[in-house]
Amino acid sequence: MNISLKDTFASTILTEATVFKQLVSENSALKLGEITLGQVYSGMKGMIGMITETSKLDPAEGIRFRGYSIPELRELLPKATGGTEPLPEGILYLMLIGSLPSEEDVKALSAELERRSEIPDFVFKVLDGFPKDTHPMVQFSAGILALGARSEFSAAYAKGIHKKNYWDPMFEDSLNLISQLPRLAAYIYCRTYRHDKHIAPLKGADWSANFAHMLGFDQEEVRELMRLYLTIHADHEGGNVSAHATHLVGSALSNAYFSFSSGMNGLAGPLHGLANQEVIRWILELQQELGGGLPTQEQIAAYVLRTIDEGKVVPGYGHAVLRKTDPRFEAQMDFAKKYMPDDDICNIVWRVYEVVPGILGSIKKIQNPWPNVDAHSGALLLHYGIKEYDFFTVLFGVSRSLGVLSQLTISRAMGLPIERPGSITSDWIRAKISAGKP
Ligand code: AMX
Q1: CA 278, CA 7: separation in Å to the nearest integer?
Q2: Theoretical Cys-Cys bridge with 223: which of 20, 98, 207, 209, CB 3.0 to 4.6 Å?
Q3: Is residue 236 flagged as an active site residue?
Q4: Nearest 10 degrees: CA dihedral of 151, 208, 182, 349?
Q5: Which residues contact 375 (CB under 8 A, 6 or more apart)?
Q6: Which atom of ligand 1 is nearest to the CA of 308?
Q7: Can you tell me the mean pLDDT for 255-277?
Q8: Could you tell me which residues come within 8 angstroms of residue 289 by beta carbon, excluding any fewer than 6 positions away?
């Protein structure tokens, strides 16, 4: 008999949660570090403040999902028939359950996502109310909220569900939302850029192939790109803006739709997920200024210095935690070198990579001069004709759902409480300093 994903979740995570809760209560006085004024002022950098099971970021090594690095996952996760990139269903299973899935687990999950993917008509009508030139992230966040009208968690809460069962409707909402997002995103894409020529979902396909199909792309290479893209953007531990916002809002027992929409509102910021569109805008402006072709290192250096002089950031470079080239950048570069070594924009991305770390590394205040995930992703999409770069953050968001909604379900299973850190005024700090008690 096939065990459902939900049963597997219940039999593993719920048991672990009970054991862990006991462990915490026996060790609640354990010190996890000290907080400095510098950390408080710099956006809580490096301050441990939450528990996230799905992934952990090491500054020197990059992200590990339940202990597995990106190169390991590209090798170990199940693939589509004839494919070489991991199926994102596999990383969803891994993050939710904590162990690698079998081929059968992943096939069953593809089918489960397809089964849950229907979107009620009123959601499309909400989207149709927006002017066509509304930024896709506005439409995406609003569409997610509209889907929340059918939240099983909110309905169960209204009926008086016992708190030990919260995880169950949260699991349902999270899986439903993950299943619906490709359709929602594709609808936004086709209404915004394809004169409302919508494409019906593909039956029996994996999550990524179906998504690529609904965007209008059926080439095997685009499917492979989508599988890689949706896998590597899935999670980046708990403190990044989209994960933290989802977690924070969920801690008030807001349903998965409210919580994830908040996460997406954070992803829409140019210092976070919107950087993927900003990178391409920045590169295309450079290209246009120079009249096309591959810019020289000197031309790129001059453009970078001008960007900084104008008080702007160089998009796609830097990170709040990482202190090396992002392995997600490397995975995409590897894909590009295999499938599109002569692509113009990819070659510019690689030349920018030769130049930028040297310049940013010479500026003392910048902690990390290396490229992040967003420095490469847009070039791959452009290559296959996904040229509408203000849509790119939506793609990031579809992937990010896998991690943050897994964690949201786990958080309810663990019974994590409402998040409510303390805050202080600058007068409080001044008084503390003058009293000589740092
Ligand atoms: N270009 C120019 N200046 C940069 C820079 C960059 N790429 N990265 C950092 N700096 C500047 C900061 O703006 C800050 O300046 P300030 O003190 O005058 O405000 C200073 O260097 C110190 O910053 P930091 O401690 O090194 O980084 P941070 O943790 O404050 O910020 C990040 C991290 C990602 C927001 C920043 O590096 C940045 O703005 N990068 C460009 C935007 C980007 O690519 N964002 C995507 C990140 C990945 C993601 O979330 N998807």
Answers
A1: 42
A2: 209
A3: no
A4: 130
A5: 279, 315, 316, 317, 326, 329, 349, 352, 353
A6: 2
A7: 98
A8: 303
Contact 436, 212 (CB under 8 A): no
Q: How far apart are the CA of 71 and the centre of ligand 1, in A?
A: 26
Q: What dihedral angle (degrees, nearest 10) is formed by the CA atoms of 154, 160, 164, 166?
A: -10
Sign of the Cα torsion 281, 283, 286, 290 reads negative
pLDDT for res 251: 98
364 Cα–ligand 1 center, Å: 12
For residue 361, the tally of other CB atoms under 10 A from its CB is 12
Residue nearest to atom 19 of ligand 1 (CA): 365
Residue 438 clears pLDDT 60, i.e. is over it: no
Axis-axis angle for helices 374-383, 392-414 (nearest 10): 130
Q: How far apart are CA 212 and CA 295, in angstroms?
A: 32
Per-residue confidence (pLDDT) for residue 167, from 0 to 100: 98
What's the confidence (pLDDT) of residue 116?
98
Out of 168, 374, 376, 383, the active site residue is 374
Alpha helices in 27-87 (DSSP H): 37-41, 70-76
The whole-angstrom separation of Cα 428 and Cα 422 is 13
On the question of pLDDT at 88 being above 90, the answer is: yes
Q: Which residue is it, tokens 């066509």?
A: 132
Cβ of residue 74 lying under 6 Å from some atom of ligand 1: no
What would be the CATH architecture of the domain defined by 275-383?
Answer: Orthogonal Bundle (1.10)
140-171 pLDDT tens trace:
999 999 999 999 999 999 999 999 999 999 99
Catalytic annotation present for 168 = no
- 1 — pLDDT class (breaks 50, 70, 90): very low
Residues of each domain in the chain carrying CATH 1.10.230.10 = 275-383
Token pair of 10 as six digits: 């219940």
Confirm if 70 and 63 have CB atoms less than 8 A apart: yes
Q: Is 272 a catalytic residue?
A: yes
What are the CA-CA distances from residue 128 to residues 131, 146, 190, 378, 397 (Å)? 8, 12, 11, 27, 20
Closest to 245 measured CA to CA, from 431, 426, 58, 404: 404
Q: Where in the chain is the domain with CATH 1.10.580.10?
A: 1-28+42-272+393-419
How far, in Å, is the centroid of ligand 1 from the Cα of 141? 25
Q: Pick 1-28+42-272+393-419's CATH classification: 3.40.50.720, 1.10.580.10, 1.20.140.10, 1.10.10.920.
A: 1.10.580.10
pLDDT band at 301 (very low <50, low <70, confident <90, very high): very high
Q: Does residue 3 register a pLDDT over 90?
A: no
